[in-house]
């Protein structure tokens, strides 16, 4: 009787000691993997199976960009479709489109995706107690031609060449660009408004970027336009913004 009691006491003490040391008192079954707790180094916290980052993994802003400079080799009837890099439409003096390019537009004079995104942006800025108004969005090739001729006659060549795109080179023909104003400013004074400062902080969350930043006319071909915002999609907009507040589409896509 006494021997049995001593034996049970010894087994119980051994189990308690093993558990205190972080080990299982039950031996692993044949073919089973050892417990994670049993193989974790002393002092280590968290999961023993934490993933290790691959040295070749790219940051999101880099993985969305082309690795080399894209080549625009469109000509003739191909100009009826815009130059597109990694899903992003590029229309500029170097990447023209013809009058045949007519995207489908809807609310706010934007493509369906851009219009839906702008509606969300507008709700958000109004929730912040601010107001935005659309001055201009989609313009056909013919409308751009009429605008260019009008500004040339009324404002002169220097102003027109700086602020008005030649027909076939305007982002407004894409249905992805929108010119904005607010109660506190419009045109060249728009960047003095609270609405503009809100856009600079939050527009990328709705897929929009400032298309023609200050001091980068040599890159974009257009002077500083605080009112001109371009829809590129949330993922791309955040990637562009992550590279700098004044990052241009040309630089982002390695076109400049």
TrEMBL record:
InterPro entries: DD-CPase-like, VanY-like_core_dom, VanY/YodJ_core_dom, Zn_M74/Hedgehog-like. One of its GO terms (biological process) is proteolysis. It comes from the Bacteria. The keyword Magnesium does not apply. The lineage of its organism: Bacteria, Bacillati, Actinomycetota, Actinomycetes, Propionibacteriales. One of its GO terms (molecular function) is carboxypeptidase activity. Residues 110-233 form the D-alanyl-D-alanine carboxypeptidase-like core domain. Residues 30-80 are annotated as: Disordered. CDD domains: LD-carboxypeptidase. It comes from Micropruina glycogenica. Residues 1-25 form the signal peptide. This is Putative D-alanyl-D-alanine carboxypeptidase. The keyword ATP-binding does not apply. Residues 47-63 have a biased composition (Low complexity).
């Amino acid at each position: 009787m006494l021997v049995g009691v001593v034996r049970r006491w010894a087994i119980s003490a051994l189990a308690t000691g093993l558990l205190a040391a972080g080990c299982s008192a039950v031996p692993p079954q044949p073919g089973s993997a050892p417990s994670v707790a049993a193989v974790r180094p002393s002092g280590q916290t968290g999961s023993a199976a934490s993933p290790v980052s691959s040295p070749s993994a790219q940051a999101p802003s880099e993985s969305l960009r082309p690795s080399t400079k894209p080549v625009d080799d469109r000509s003739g009837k191909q100009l009826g479709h815009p130059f597109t890099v990694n899903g992003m439409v590029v229309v500029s003096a170097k990447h023209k489109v013809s009058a045949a390019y007519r995207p489908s537009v809807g609310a706010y004079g934007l493509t369906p995706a851009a219009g839906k995104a702008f509606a969300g942006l507008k709700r958000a800025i109004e929730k912040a107690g601010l107001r935005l108004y659309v001055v201009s969005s989609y313009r056909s090739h013919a409308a751009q031609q009429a605008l260019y001729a009008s500004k040339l006659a009324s404002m002169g060549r220097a102003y027109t060449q700086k602020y008005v795109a030649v027909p076939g080179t305007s982002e407004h023909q894409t249905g992805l660009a929108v010119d904005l104003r607010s109660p506190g400013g419009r045109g060249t004074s728009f960047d003095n408004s609270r609405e503009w400062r809100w856009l600079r902080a939050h527009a990328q969350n709705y897929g929009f970027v400032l298309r023609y930043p200050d001091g980068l006319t040599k890159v974009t071909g257009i002077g500083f336009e605080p009112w001109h915002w371009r829809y590129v999609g949330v993922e791309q907009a955040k990637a562009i913004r992550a590279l700098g507040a004044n990052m241009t589409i040309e630089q982002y896509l390695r076109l400049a």
